[in-house]
Task: inverse folding
């Protein structure tokens, strides 16, 4: 622990305006909105199966991370180190171990590298994963062991589960059955934990992030089930003009759900763990069901 303290004190001691800005830009590459944007771009426009695998790598890593946080409950660095200068502390939610940003970056970019198997892309993904992890330590919001734990969970999810989910996607009927079960289980878990969190029966810091993961997992599984049953779209070759338009429209809806709906809930005084989970459920559902709606408007074939 003493070595970890010295590492963070070193980073705290070299804080400058320029480096702080750079680290905050880098850390965004491990945050939810950008990672959702990357995953759905692949799923809607590039390769549906690869997009599915990337989403599943991220969601399963998030689930493992959330359970780890809820069980281990390790405190954040600023609660153990006096006079530690932190930056962008508001992005550090819940307990400390493992690092959520590092987990998300490693699982998403790791899955991209595994799925596309291009040397130049793999190098970029590896650099992004490393930089996100370093940024969390530079900002002094995570211990080095948190970053290492996030790397293990995220990279492990990408490397070990990608082939499993490729095979699952190829077996359409089986994937629909699995997704249906996941939709029911994850949604029920989110409903239960939302109630417990609103009633303050469980530790908010331990379970709120995990509840969000259950919600988005449940929504995505439901949307996937309905889309593959009713449409099962295939991505067309070329036509990038239309692809760009449908991507921008789709992401505008994601932004409206994440930011617009949050503002509405805050304005009417009902923003809590339950309505927060509802937003993420809707994001997950939209991510997979959007092609069904887009087909009716000509955005998808």
Result:
């Amino acid at each position: 622990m003493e070595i970890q303290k010295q590492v963070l004190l070193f980073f705290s001691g070299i804080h400058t305006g320029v480096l702080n800005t750079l680290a905050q830009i880098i850390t965004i590459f491990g945050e939810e909105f950008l990672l959702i944007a990357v995953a759905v771009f692949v799923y809607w426009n590039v390769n549906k199966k690869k997009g599915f695998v990337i989403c599943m790598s991220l969601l399963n890593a998030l689930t493992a991370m959330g359970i780890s946080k809820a069980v281990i409950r390790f405190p954040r660095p600023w609660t153990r180190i006096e006079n530690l200068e932190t930056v962008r502390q508001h992005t550090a939610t819940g307990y400390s171990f493992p690092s959520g940003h590092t987990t998300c970056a490693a699982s998403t970019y790791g899955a991209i590298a595994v799925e596309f198997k291009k040397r130049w892309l793999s190098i970029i993904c590896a650099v992004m994963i490393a930089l996100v992890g370093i940024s969390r330590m530079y900002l002094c919001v995570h211990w080095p062991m948190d970053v290492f734990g996030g790397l293990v969970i995220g990279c492990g999810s990408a490397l070990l589960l990608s082939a499993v989910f490729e095979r699952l996607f190829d077996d359409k009927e089986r994937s629909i059955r699995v997704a249906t079960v996941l939709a029911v289980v994850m949604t029920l878990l989110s409903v239960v934990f939302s109630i417990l969190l609103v009633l303050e029966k469980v530790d908010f810091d331990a379970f709120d992030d995990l509840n969000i993961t259950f919600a988005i997992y449940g929504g995505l599984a439901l949307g996937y089930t309905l889309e593959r049953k009713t449409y099962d779209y295939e991505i067309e070759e070329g036509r990038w003009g239309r692809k760009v338009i449908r991507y921008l429209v789709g992401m505008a809806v994601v932004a409206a759900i994440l930011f617009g709906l949050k503002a509405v809930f805050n304005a009417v005084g009902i923003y809590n763990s339950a309505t927060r989970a509802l937003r993420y459920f809707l994001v997950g559902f939209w991510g997979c069901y959007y092609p069904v709606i887009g087909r009716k408007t000509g955005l998808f074939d």
User: Anything to note?
Assistant: Residues 172-301 form one domain. The chain has two domains: 1-170, 172-301. The longest helix spans residues 240-267. The chain has eleven helices and no strands.
